[in-house]
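Minutes, project check-in
Item: structure for the 349-residue chain
Input as provided by the requester:
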Amino acid sequence: MTGPGAKGGTTVRDALRGWGGVTAMAVVCALVALVALCLPLTTSTTATQNTTATHTARTKADEECEAPEKQTLSPSSADGDTIRAIKNREGEKRKLIVGVDQNSYRWGYRNPNSGKTAELEGFDIDLVHRIAEDILGDPDAVQFKAIPTDQRIPAIKDGRVDMVVRTMTINCARIADVAFSAPYFKTGQQVLAPKSSPVKGYDGTLADRRICTAAGSTAYAKLEADQKAGELPASTDISTTVPNQLDCLVRLQLGEVDAVVTDGALAASQAAQDPTVQLKGDAFTAEYYGVAMKKDADDLVRRVNQILVDYRKDTANGWQASYDQWLSATLGKDAKKSEPPAPQYLRTS
């Protein structure tokens, strides 16, 4: 697959191995955390969406939320006010502004071997380039903004970014604040712990254990709810939260916590970085990643949904090719368990 992750020579896969790799990546992330990587975006069509019906449908859907991954708008290639505003940006500002992660191995991370710019690479980054290519005609017309887990929704609502593509789970609480695309990846919460740990999974073996999660994550929300419901031992300490999920792996390595709970897809990549840890037990939730945008950006939501339809159909340079390049080594060659089902959309008429 073409793109930032398809360059020759020594790759970050070779460099980031075990404890040394984790440390190296953590150092790189720290050095570039204050710098937003700016890469160069053009394209198509005109038509203004009728938003009244869609907002009515979405409000009703929010109130009756049961399957949040199905509460998105039908695909369209038409340009509305949001897309036209992006296209009308002048000069160097004519870019898609996207909130991403920069330290999630194989999803969105900076490659220390890519030169002075330490380019962002990974599965999420490939999708961002595809969206930029469709909307602005240039896959590199992107301004990346590194955003902590707990700042994803504020960044969208404040208008700091056009969208967030950052392993962001679609859930009922979040669709009250932002609009999501159709799902682009299926995963579930899992436990990550040292191989020598007596922890066996999301069960009673977590009693008297310290668990780390990312602040504002679905993992923390699940733990908090289950503990209140008596489904997680009351003695389990879930007080350790961090701004970025990778920080949990560092806490685990330092012995400050006994286990990490996060999306299985992310946990598998962290286990690939550090051979002393492993996934414990099966996934105990079913969740879907989506592209998050402003609630009133209906034309952009529809456009991204159309891009996702085309992206999944593109066998040469689309979803499957990106999965093979970035995720097959940790999640297995069979991508079917990670590919979301055929999307379902809100009825707006």
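Outcome recorded: The longest strand covers residues 189-194.
No further action items on this chain.
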